[in-house]
Specification:
Blueprint lengths: L5 H17 L34 H27 L7 H10 L3 H21 L6 H10 L10 H4 L8 H7 L6 H6 L4 H7 L15 E10 L5 H12 L4 E10 L6 E15 L5 H4 L11 H10 L3 E5 L8 H10 L14 H25 L1 H11 L1 H29 L17 H14 L8 E5 L6 H5 L6 E4 L14 E5 L14 H5 L3 E7 L2 E8 L3 E5 L14 H13 E5 L15 H4 L20 H12 L1
Parallel strand pairs: 5-10, 5-11, 6-7, 7-10
Antiparallel strand pairs: 1-3, 2-3, 2-4, 8-9
Protein name: Replication-associated protein
InterPro entries: P-loop_NTPase
């Protein structure tokens, strides 16, 4: 007989006592949870009964067919919802939203009203005693569509004679490349100074005996890894300055790094010191002009720096002349005595050149224009940053409005004409997304392409029609344009969007309409996320997007992105361009038409925007 624990006996007595108060029939209840029982010798296994053993064959087959048909229909409906716009079932909601939030004419009218308001702000709040602001106003008179400024506000104020000296006092040698070559683009700098940007063959007797090196390397190794390797190799005490930028070749579509290293004293090496980390033979003799090279590699914006630039080619007196000139394009100022009138004319010319340059920057990037003013004239920037920001936003808006009206957006590559080597499955996925989502006006799926560097993801993403919001690195509100045709987020780890200050990823990638966003120089503002989005990821940066979900929240997010994104993981032999591949005429001209967007449905872009882009591209060839 099993032994019952004492606490169970006590519980039984309490139960018995309690029952006697309510009934004359005694009863006992025991806690059987802790009774030790031996396992049954019978092993139980799940099993299916055979047809006809319990239910007759006819009934069994009928029930089985009905159950399987329902499951099949359910799976097919789920696949249809996930792959063919699950959020477009409510036609009334779609019609209402398209008619109100994403009406092209309404958007153009709102843009024009915003630009008119900015124009009024510029005219009413122009800073006084600011020669650069006067120069900007003079340049604006050529593009303003509203009433011109009064004459007394447009003329240069000669009373502020100390602007140039105050400005120069804030400049250092680190700013010389921007001062001297800031008005030139990359191509002009390379042509003017005859840069050798091609790989060079290995020479056994190569020696590396110099203080400054201008290097280019056709490699897929990251600039961060190369930077760290140089620091570890030489030690920080021997390094004056390092700058490394990344560029994608316009013709070859190959990724390469531009490197500038300036040492505190001359080094003497027999072995190429960057070849090991880049895994290729680099060109160490791009140019002997360290100032022009520094300006060139910074033009792309995608660069990392260590230390402070100091030219080894300029003597101290030349450096002071450059700093005092503080002009992006004027030659060094002569030290001969000048009359007061000549000095005034010179300052006006310098202001005019700086105004022309900064407005050119603002046409494409408001952030770069603001950064230029901050470096050149920090005192004016601090006092009048709001006015400069309004002015640059106005110039940027007018430029993009012109591009929208004329369709004049030049592309280095166009889809699919420039990608005749693109592998078949990848091309089909891309064309399918273009057909069904690129022209959506609401809640289009974002396209997420996952693949290694050097397969042409970026070149493809920039090859679609229209102006593009392109982001790489941290969020920059001034690079956002409500009127862009689409948006591209390149090389941003999936789980790092919030860390890099981007707005909510669900809002940003799913065409979610008007949302709030903020950034430095800016208060919280409303932006209109009306563009379809493309996200480009390296395999190591996919994070939670491809990781098996565990928690309830992770499962919910996985289901959300399963419905809201077209995710394609490129195979090891897939690419937009890379290896020679025979293609037929039909493949080369594979169409991205036959859209699921209805003929009478509101859509983004023009119906013939791909053909228009092709004609413009062919005209440039």
């Amino acid at each position: 007989m099993s032994t019952i624990p004492r606490n169970q006996i006590e519980q039984g007595r309490e139960d018995e006592s309690s029952s006697l108060h309510s009934s004359n029939v005694p009863s006992r209840r025991y806690n059987i949870d802790n009774i030790d029982l031996d396992d049954s010798p019978m092993k139980s296994f799940p099993s299916h009964f055979q047809a006809g053993s319990i239910i007759d064959d006819v009934t069994f087959q009928r029930v089985l067919t009905e159950v399987m048909n329902k499951e099949t229909q359910k799976e097919q409906q789920q696949d249809h919802d996930l792959n063919e716009q699950s959020d477009y079932d409510d036609n009334d909601m779609i019609t209402d939203t398209n008619a109100n939030l994403f009406n092209e004419r309404q958007f153009d009218e709102e843009l024009e009203r915003d630009l008119q308001n900015l124009s009024q702000i510029i005219q009413m709040n122009q800073p006084i005693n600011d020669n650069l602001a006067s120069g900007i106003i003079h340049q604006l008179n050529e593009v303003l569509r509203t009433t011109t400024m009064p004459v007394n506000q447009m003329t240069t104020d000669d009373g502020d004679n100390n602007d140039q000296s105050n400005m120069a006092s804030h400049l250092t040698e680190h700013d010389i490349p921007m001062i001297y070559y800031g008005h030139l683009n990359r191509q002009n700098i390379a042509q003017q100074f005859q840069f050798n940007l091609q790989p060079t063959p290995t020479v056994p007797n190569d020696r590396f005996n110099a203080m400054s090196f201008a290097i280019t390397s056709w490699t897929d190794v990251s600039k961060d890894l190369v930077m760290q390797s140089i620091k570890d190799d030489f030690g920080l005490d021997k390094i004056q300055y390092i700058c490394i930028s990344e560029e994608i070749g316009e013709v070859s579509h190959r990724r390469h790094l531009h490197i500038q290293v300036i040492f505190t004293s001359k080094i003497n090496r027999r072995k190429p010191f960057v070849d090991d980390v880049t895994q290729t033979h680099c060109n160490y003799q791009v140019t002997g002009n360290d100032i022009a090279w520094n300006a060139y590699i910074k033009k792309g914006g995608n660069y990392n720096e260590y230390g402070s630039f100091r030219s080894i080619r300029q003597h101290s007196d030349q450096i002071q002349q450059l700093l005092s000139a503080s002009s992006t394009s004027a030659p060094m100022i002569s030290t001969r005595a000048m009359t007061a009138r000549a000095q005034t004319e010179q300052r006006q010319q310098q202001n005019k050149e700086m105004a022309r340059h900064v407005l050119k920057l603002a046409e494409t990037n408001v952030h770069q224009a603001m950064e230029y003013i901050r470096q050149i004239m920090p005192d004016k920037f601090l006092a009048h940053s709001s006015w400069y920001l309004s002015t640059f936003n106005y110039i940027n808006g007018r430029k993009q409005q012109h591009l929208r009206e004329t369709g004049e957006v030049d592309k280095d590559n166009i889809w699919p004409r420039s990608f005749q080597q693109c592998t078949a499955a990848l091309k089909e996925v891309v064309n399918r997304w273009i057909r069904h989502h690129f022209s959506r006006t609401k809640r289009a799926k974002c396209l997420v392409l996952i693949g290694p560097t050097g397969t042409g993801k970026t070149s493809f993403a920039l090859s679609l029609p229209g102006y593009v919001n392109y982001f790489k690195g941290r969020w920059n509100l001034d690079s956002w344009h409500d009127y862009a045709r689409y948006s591209v987020y390149d090389d941003i780890a999936w789980d790092d969007f919030s860390k890099l200050n981007y707005p909510n990823k669900k809002d940003l990638l799913t065409q979610n309409g008007k949302i709030n966003a903020t950034d430095k120089y800016r208060r919280t503002v409303e932006i209109n996320v009306r563009q379809p989005a493309i996200v480009l990821l390296n395999p190591e940066d996919t994070g939670s997007l491809t990781r098996e979900p565990i928690t309830l929240e992770e499962h919910q997010l996985a289901q959300y992105w399963k419905k809201r994104a077209t995710v394609y993981i490129m195979g090891p032999n897939e690419y937009f361009y890379q290896r020679p591949r025979q293609t037929t005429g039909s493949t080369q001209n594979q169409s991205s038409s036959n859209s699921s967007t209805a003929n009478d449905e509101q859509r983004l872009g023009d119906p013939d925007e791909f053909e228009t882009m092709l004609r413009r591209w062919e005209a440039k060839q």
